[in-house]
Amino acid sequence: MAIAPVQHMLSKSMLTHIGIALTLGGGSAYTFWYKDVMVRREMRDQYYIKDRAERAARS
Description:
Keywords: Membrane, Transmembrane, Transmembrane helix. This protein has one helix at about 10-59. By secondary structure, the chain is mainly alpha-helical. It is rod-shaped and about 95 Å long.
């Protein structure tokens, strides 16, 4: 009795791992961008709006 060879298991596994990695990486990047970068950008913009208003009031 011969055992049938396992064919294409490596390529299927590799594609699965690549797909999972790209999905998790994209999700992580999206989360980082909208939970960290955009919040800091809004804080910076508010600071400069306040600073310009104070400068205009002093002038």
